[in-house]
Amino acid sequence: METVVKRFYTLIALIAVLLMPATLAHASVPQAPAAPAAPEDAPPPDFPLAGPDKIAWGASVMPYQGEDYQKALVRSEQQLAPQVIRYYLPPGRALAWPTVTGDNPLVISFKLAPREVLNGSHDAALRAFFAATPRPSYWSYFHEPEDNIARGQFTAADYRKAWAHIAALAKASGKPLRATLILMGYTAKPASGRTWSDYYPGDDVVDVIAWDCYAWTTKDTPADAYGYALQISQEAGKPWAIAETGVPAKEYSNDADRRAKLTAMSQYRATAPTPPEFVTYFDSDPVDQHQYAWNITNNHWDAAAWLAGQNG
Q: 46: closest CA among 137, 109, 131?
């Protein structure tokens, strides 16, 4: 019996020796770790465009003195080096991403009648538009709707519903987009008699609240222009931005005073306790190129004054 037991253990030891090289070889091969599961609700990439707690500075672009858009964009890039371009899709034009803006991220807006949006007339075009998003951008439906609603062209209720309808289509595209409500800076001021939330489609619809704020006269301070907009945005708990802003040359008798105001205006945003996600200067005069003279890229020193305040 003892001999049988010894033979049995000898056999077990022999099997172990024979298997050892294969076992060691297998153990010496490093195993790749399992890939982590992607979060179900990952935020869009590259937002904010300038990085956390940084402002993406930009401008609108308008051809002057016989320029085409491409030449005007080059002028803007040389003078302001914009990180984002404010672009307005003309009413009645087919929804499409512009090619003239190059590779620049956009703050892009378009206007569609709310009732047409709500009856689904534009659903196919909107789906195609958002699906074709070429790069991270901010989009806005019917910027500055306040006067249109006051004139009775559509109701605030329909506007909010249309906004929510379009936002759902944008979100379904899965593209890197930020839904941006753009209101008049005047609406934020008590003197307007307006309630800004009348135009607000909801926290689950809007990603950013943006404002069009100007220093209309020489007496307007940066706090006059932006203070109430910032306050409302903070109370709403939403990221904020400035979609249009400017200092009109027509209001100033000398260039030095205007340039000082330009620097003060940009500095006010750069040092705001809550930085806006983007600021786009209104470098245009669409009705009459000499009505207000907002432009700053036609003069190097005007552009330099605006840039001077951006570092705080």
A: 137
